[in-house]
Amino acid sequence: MIKVTKKINDVMKRDKKVMFTTTREHYPFVVAKASGDYAYDIAGNRFIDFTSFISVYNFGLNGNAAIRKAAKDQIDKLMHAAFLDYHSELPVKFAENLLTMFPKGFGRVFLSNSGTEANEDAIKLARLFTKKSYIIGFYNAFHGRSLGSLGITATKLVHREHYGPFPNVAHSIYPNPYRSQFNSQTPDELALACIDHLENVILAKEYSPKEVAAIFVEPIQGEGGYIVPPKIFMKELRRIATENNIVLVSDEVQAGYMRTGKFLAMDNFGVTADIYTMAKAIGGGLPLAATIARSSFGDTPSGSHAGTFGGNLVSVAAANASLNYLKKNKRSLEHLVKEKGKYIMKRLNKLKDDYEIVGDVRGLGLMLAAEFVKNKDTKAHAPKERDAIIEECFNNGLLLLPTGTSAIRIIPPITMSKENIEKGMDVFEEAVRKVNAK
Ligand SMILES: Cc1ncc(COP(=O)(O)O)c(C=O)c1O
Are residue 73 and residue 184 in the same domain, yes or no? Predict the structure, then answer.
């Protein structure tokens, strides 16, 4: 049982007084250090981490020894190299290395610092390349919180309230097979109904495809509840984009970088986008983001787009070490994602069979979630029960994060030991049992 000490309460009180509130509210976790599978708080409590610190530490908490060494070595040489104005080799080397992970035809990279920036960059590139302005996004999507990407984000009202207006963005419907929209009978029928809405309502009555620069899509909706769409949905988006000279942007910020067992989550759908955005795990724990585009788009005019810290040498050194680790161990990482994902899904399916409040379990690879409901027939969301489960798990040494209206995500580092995955699932199961019995 976790002990919440005076020291922990003290930091939380001081935080509340001086920091603008973000999303920290679920539990009194004041982190001190982390390594491998475990995070420790300032009172010495130890936690198994099923969050990868929000999908960042895919290869173990605090990166791994090679990632840390690369960053430390670079700190002693040069940290910031003004990559927007001066040349340096390391970011170029990293971009070359990164491009080897992309399909043929992808040849240009823009480096920035966060997921939202990577998406801002993609918005600008799509507008520049097509000379068109409108963007299509999807309800339930999360692309970031700066004003351009926030316009495409449509997960929760609280993200957007008072920050608009957001001109030039339209939202369409992303298929959610568990809560099937349009009364569709099968997931594919649902996907095609969503595509029909996009093509014959949004693009036929409101926004001319002649004016649409980009369609932004998450291969799996992350903050929106870990929603996996049917394959045909992505294939149809590809068709619409190609037919209308619209840039298809795959936001891989949360789902990419091996989380689903593939470097690019979009590969699960057999579809190639035109621009990919990546952040979170790509920096190995340091802030880094990348926007990767097809060479055929050409280049940006000098001075038209840049940023002071994009290509920061310490971040890039860590990212390059992380990418080298990934490339060297790709086969075994793929295997680990498959094996561990299968094990967790088996346990989640059993929970769904055994407990009324577990409405749906879903995901791909090690990007998994369980959605909690008041009862299986009405599928009414059960956010209070979901929060109670997260709190119960926290009290028993397991870190979890919510997603969507009433789901919990399960995203351990890919390298987490089987033993700790089992232990974590035991804690989770016991919490579900307890809350279900209330
Ligand atoms: C799919 C997706 N895109 C973009 C972002 C924004 O990334 P950042 O918080 O680094 O700006 C997130 C963050 O959760 C995300 O999940």
Answer: yes
- What's the confidence (pLDDT) of residue 24? 73
Indicate whether 1 belongs to any domain: no
DSSP designation for 396: T
Beta-carbon contacts of 308 under 8 Å, excluding residues fewer than 6 positions away, are 82, 84
> Alpha-carbon distance 99 to 96, whole Å?
5
Sign (positive/negative) of CA torsion 262, 268, 274, 277?
negative
Q: Does one domain contain both 324 and 225?
A: yes
What spacing in Å lies between the alpha carbon of 287 and ligand 1's midpoint?
A: 12
- Least Cα distance to 98 among 247, 321, 266, 249 occurs for 321
pLDDT of residue 1 exceeding 90: no
Q: Is 113 helix (H, G, I), strand (E, B) or coil?
A: coil
Residue that is last in its domain, among 271, 298, 328? 328
What residue owns the CA closest to ligand 1's atom 9? 115
CA 372 / ligand 1 centre spacing (Å): 24
Number of H helices, E strands in the chain: 13, 15
Residue type, 156: K
Q: Which atom of ligand 1 is nearest to the CA of 144?
A: 6
Query: CA Rg, the chain, in Å?
Result: 22
Structural domain contains residue 380: yes
Domain with 15, as residue range(s), is: 6-63+330-437
How far is residue 11 CA from its own chain's centroid?
28
- Which amino acid is residue 56, in one-letter code? V
User: Distances from the Cα of 20 to the Cαs of 14, 17, 31, in angstroms?
Assistant: 11, 8, 19
- Which of 112, 113, 143 is the pocket-test mutation for ligand 1 (most atoms within 8 Å of CB)? 143
- State if residue 279 touches ligand 1 by the CB under 6 angstroms criterion: yes
Model pTM?
Answer: 0.97
For ligand 1, whether the C-beta of 151 sits within 6 Å is: no
Indicate if the pLDDT at residue 148 is higher than 90. yes
Report the alpha-carbon distance of residue 283 to residue 277 in Å, rounded.
Answer: 13
User: What secondary structure letter does DSSP report for 21?
Assistant: P
Locate all alpha helices (DSSP H) within 131-207, ordered by sequence. Answer: 147-152, 157-160, 187-197
What pLDDT digit, counting tens, does each position of 31-42 carry?
999 999 999 999
